[in-house]
Amino acid sequence: MKEKIEAMRVSIEEGIAAAENRKELFEQKMKYLGKTGEITALLKGMRDVAPEERPQVGKIINELRFWAEEAFAAREEVLKQQELSAKYASEKIDVTMPAKFVETGSVHPVTLVRQELLNIFTGMGFDVYEGPEIEKDYYNFQALNIPADHPARDMQDTFFISGEFLLRSQTSSGQIRVMENKKPPIKVLSPGRVYRSDSDATHSPMFHQMEGLVVDKGITLNDLKGLLDEFARRMFTSETKVRLRPSYFPFTEPSVEVDLSCSNCGGKGCRICKGTGWIEVLGAGMVNRKVLENCGVDPDVYTGFAFGMGLERIAMIKYGISDIRLMFENDVRFLKQFKD
Ligand code: PHE
Questions:
Q1: Cα(8) to centroid of ligand 1, in Å?
Q2: C-alpha 166 – ligand 1 centre gap (Å)
Q3: Which atom from ligand 1 is nearest to the alpha carbon of 283?
Q4: Which residue minimizes the CA distance to atom 7 of ligand 1?
Q5: Measured on CA atoms in the order 328, 331, 332, 336, is the torsion positive or negative?
Q6: How far is the CA of 137 from the centre of ligand 1 (A)?
Q7: Which of 56, 163, 269, 326 is 20 to 30 A removed from 135 (C-alpha atoms)?
Q8: CA dist., res. 227 & res. 211, Å (int)
Q9: Per residue of the chain (340 residues), what is the pLDDT tens digit?
Q10: Which residue is closest in CA terms to ligand 1's atom 2?
Q11: Which residues contact 283 (CB under 8 A, 6 or more apart)?
Q12: How far is residue 324's CA from residue 322's CA, in Å, rounded to a whole number?
């Protein structure tokens, strides 16, 4: 019996050493300790052993069994560690590898200007109203004191869709739509696309304007000047000055052209301001009595001012862009420069 046990111990040791993974080891374990395993068979065979020999035989079989269980467990642990190390090695990430490059977009300069203007003016309490781009002649011209055949129509070379409808040539149409629907006090900003049949380095057939309208009791040109001073300082530099020059728009009276001191040279005169020290940025004025009347607002009770600016023009001044067409060509080499 003893020899048999010893031989089995040797073959178990060999079997354990030969197992290269946990699956093979498990097969070996079953071969000896499983239900039909060899050690299990030895234990079952105890019945046939003479009663006086049983304690002796039982002891050595049990020793073999405990030894075998431990030997399998120890090898199992070693193989488990080996398998884990192999798995970790295969999943290792090289953190020094260059990252995948993701090209991110940038915000268009006109959008940047629009956002900044909206920030500045909504911060001063302005609401925002966006009117339609296909507009009635009435809102774009007639209600703004520009009747059919008025010579002021020549200032805005308009795309007509029909006798009645056109592509709006100015966001001033928003003034009428707002005043028709709301009683003063009114403080509203009207940004959007406008269209004119005009195209060169400083004009584009489609461009963006932002209209401002304030109507209340006792509003004066001084309020307009104060508002523009604040706008100029926030949009450009704290040193930027505002100058009003007399001008003409049918829907404002008096009308002004608004210049800002050149933020490039500080007013001394340079290439950007063409040596004058001033840059024209917007049109403005006190809302014409006739326009207020057209909208059912009593001009003897209420007064107001309006201003309108081109966003491309503001962007050209702010970012030193010399040709408006760059803003519509969508050349990424140009657009990429406006990452903030
Ligand atoms: N709508 C005018 C233009 O497009 C600008 C303007 C707006 C002037 C409001 C005065 C008041 O030229």
A1: 105
A2: 17
A3: 8
A4: 308
A5: negative
A6: 16
A7: 326
A8: 14
A9: 788 888 999 999 999 999 999 999 999 999 999 999 999 988 888 888 888 988 888 899 999 999 999 999 999 999 999 999 999 998 888 889 888 888 888 999 999 999 999 999 999 999 999 999 999 999 999 999 999 989 888 888 999 999 899 999 999 999 999 999 999 999 999 999 999 999 888 889 999 999 999 999 999 999 999 999 999 999 999 999 999 999 999 999 999 999 999 988 888 998 888 899 999 999 999 999 999 999 999 999 999 999 999 999 999 999 989 899 999 999 999 999 987 6
A10: 308
A11: 247, 249, 252, 255, 256, 257, 258, 307, 308, 309
A12: 7
Contact 16, 72 (CB under 8 A): yes
Rg (C-alpha) for the chain, rounded Å, is 44
pTM of the entire predicted model: 0.72
Ligand 1 pocket by Cβ (under 6 Å): 170, 172, 211, 249, 252, 283-285, 306-308
Cα separation, 299 vs 317, in Å, equals: 36
Return the best residue to mutate from 251, 256, 288, 313 for the ligand 1 pocket (most ligand atoms within 8 A of CB). Answer: 251
Tally of CB atoms within 10 A around 109:
22
